[in-house]
């Protein structure tokens, strides 16, 4: 009996073999601005880069120093990477003596109180964005918010879903079928995402200053560096994105409606610890509200269902009204050995993995399986390269390597289908290349980071600062062509004008503006 994956791929091959060429790919990359000595840049967002509020390609995430580069959705990952390269190349020319930190775990940070929160100007929406970040500071601390990563946005062709729906004799509304298919993808992603952490985790060590005296359970590599010998991604461990309130939040991924209901409850339900803080202190905003989540984006998930929102529309509203359009993969570390932190080979593997998750059978997850998947992920980020590491599959122990080999075998057909659509062998070659990391852990980015630290007898901070300087020099030696540079300058100027226009509008009462915004959850 053929599996669902086999049936779906056979259908594509027979009826629409080129359809997979219409997948879309987008990238979001975060990078801290640093001074030449490796310390956090305390300067405002450079005006030459435009407005962080209104620029479509260059903004900030949590801190004023945490740049975020955003590409459009492209038909190939190479095109998305090329746009990211252009954005980064332009940015380097406008930073003066400053550099971009090339690791996910931060540089040496100043005292917690001195880490600057991102500022977006005096417009109501600009103030709201800063208030939200102030809320993150009081809830989670500022240091955690300076961790950086790469988000990979991916969608399958809209024409794929009616084809599958007809073949499966499904009579749901088309929008409901497509949304459910993406939710099914997300469930499989949660089952198997430990594999991505093993293959691509690149943060096995951290500057000791990041912990700032907190208990951590890490080993000491040298006076200034903490690490775990088999870790793949401390960024994704409980040392990174952690919070006792969020640990109680377990959105249900059985259906889109149950997922949305979980988040609506979280953004509408007061949490005692946050209620004790209040929304204002001495007239100064502390957070948008005292609920478990201020807004839905506060939930730190490894993958999100997404829909492009209209102006003024909340993400929850966009998903509820028009369904899932794409997924946002949020667990990727920045690979410090790569100029962009990611390359085409990794993107081709991700496409293969996500196609597998979308087309493979994805039964509902029981509470026990949810806990098992969470435990597998947590074990892999801290001990993924440990020889013979045992994960748990349906309650039975299974070695990471053996399970990984079986997943690679299952993904083979997906890689072949993608190569048939695009032409060439890029996806199959990516699969073969990454399989080598499964058999030889020394080839993983996390192992390479530790190997270099030990070989050169240098601290994590020293190693990362040297890489930042080298990447900057490489980019500055080959700036954008004058015409491209002028286009970026024009975009920056237009974004500043757009922010000024927003700030010229009649003043509004911020209490009412915030209350109206946070109330829009349906």
TrEMBL record:
Catalytic activity: L-cysteine + L-glutamate + ATP = gamma-L-glutamyl-L-cysteine + ADP + phosphate + H(+)
Pathway: Sulfur metabolism; glutathione biosynthesis; glutathione from L-cysteine and L-glutamate: step 1/2
GO molecular function, a single term: glutamate-cysteine ligase activity
Keyword ATP-binding set for record: yes
Limits of the Glutamate--cysteine ligase domain: 11-378
GO cellular component terms given for this protein: cytosol
EC numbers, comma separated: 6.3.2.2
Keywords: ATP-binding, Glutathione biosynthesis, Ligase, Nucleotide-binding
SUPFAM superfamilies (UniProt xref): Glutamine synthetase/guanido kinase
Gene3D superfamilies (alphabetical): 3.30.590.20
UniProt-listed GO biological process terms: glutathione biosynthetic process
Similarity-based family: Belongs to the glutamate--cysteine ligase type 1 family. Type 1 subfamily.
Annotated PANTHER family: GLUTAMATE--CYSTEINE LIGASE
Record protein name field: Glutamate--cysteine ligase
Source organism phylogeny: Bacteria, Pseudomonadati, Pseudomonadota, Gammaproteobacteria, Pseudomonadales
């Amino acid at each position: 009996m053929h599996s669902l994956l086999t049936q779906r791929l056979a259908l594509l091959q027979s009826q629409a073999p080129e359809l997979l060429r219409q997948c879309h790919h987008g990238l979001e990359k975060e990078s801290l601005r640093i001074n030449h000595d490796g310390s956090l840049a305390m300067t405002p967002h450079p005006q030459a880069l435009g407005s962080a509020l209104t620029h479509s390609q260059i903004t900030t995430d949590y801190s004023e120093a945490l740049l975020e580069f955003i590409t459009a959705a492209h038909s190939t990952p190479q095109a998305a990477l090329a746009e990211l390269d252009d954005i980064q190349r332009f940015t380097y020319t406008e930073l003066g003596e400053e550099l971009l930190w090339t690791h996910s775990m931060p540089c040496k940070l100043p005292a917690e109180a001195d880490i600057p929160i991102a500022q977006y100007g005096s417009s109501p929406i600009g103030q709201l964005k800063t208030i939200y970040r102030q809320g993150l500071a009081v809830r989670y601390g500022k240091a955690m918010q300076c961790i950086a990563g790469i988000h990979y946005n991916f969608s399958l062709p809209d024409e794929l879903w009616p084809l599958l729906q007809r073949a499966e004799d499904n009579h749901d509304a088309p929008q409901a079928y497509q949304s459910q298919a993406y939710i099914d993808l997300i469930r499989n992603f949660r089952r198997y995402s430990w594999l991505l952490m093993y293959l691509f985790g690149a943060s096995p060590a951290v500057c000791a200053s990041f912990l700032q005296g907190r208990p951590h359970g890490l080993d000491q590599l040298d006076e200034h560096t903490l690490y775990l010998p088999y870790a793949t991604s401390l960024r994704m461990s409980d040392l990174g994105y952690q919070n006792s309130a969020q640990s109680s939040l377990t959105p249900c991924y059985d259906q889109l409606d149950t997922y949305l209901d979980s988040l609506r409850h979280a953004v509408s339900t007061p949490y005692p610890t946050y209620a004790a803080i209040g929304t204002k202190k001495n007239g100064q905003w502390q957070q948008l509200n005292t609920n478990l989540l201020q807004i839905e984006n506060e939930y730190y998930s490894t993958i999100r269902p997404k829909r492009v929102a209209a102006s003024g529309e909340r993400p929850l509203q966009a998903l509820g009204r028009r369904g899932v359009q794409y997924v946002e993969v949020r667990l990727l570390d920045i690979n410090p050995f790569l100029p962009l932190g990611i390359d085409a080979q990794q993107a081709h593997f991700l496409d293969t993995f996500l196609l597998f998750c979308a087309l493979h059978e994805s039964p509902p997850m029981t509470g026990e399986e949810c806990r098992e998947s969470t435990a597998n992920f947590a074990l892999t980020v801290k001990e993924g390269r440990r020889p013979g590491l045992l994960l748990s599959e349906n309650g039975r122990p299974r070695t990471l390597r053996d399970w990984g080999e079986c997943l690679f075998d299952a993904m083979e057909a997906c890689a072949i289908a993608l190569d048939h659509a695009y032409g060439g062998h890029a996806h199959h070659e990516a699969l073969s290349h990454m399989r080598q990391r499964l058999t030889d852990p020394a080839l993983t980015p996390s192992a390479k980071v530790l190997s270099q630290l030990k070989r050169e007898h240098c601290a994590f901070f020293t190693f990362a600062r040297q890489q930042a300087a080298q990447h900057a020099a490489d980019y500055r030696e080959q700036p954008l062509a004058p015409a491209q540079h002028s286009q970026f300058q024009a975009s920056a100027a237009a974004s500043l004008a757009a922010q000024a226009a927003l700030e010229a509008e009649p003043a509004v009462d911020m209490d009412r503006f915030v209350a109206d915004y946070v109330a829009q959850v349906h």
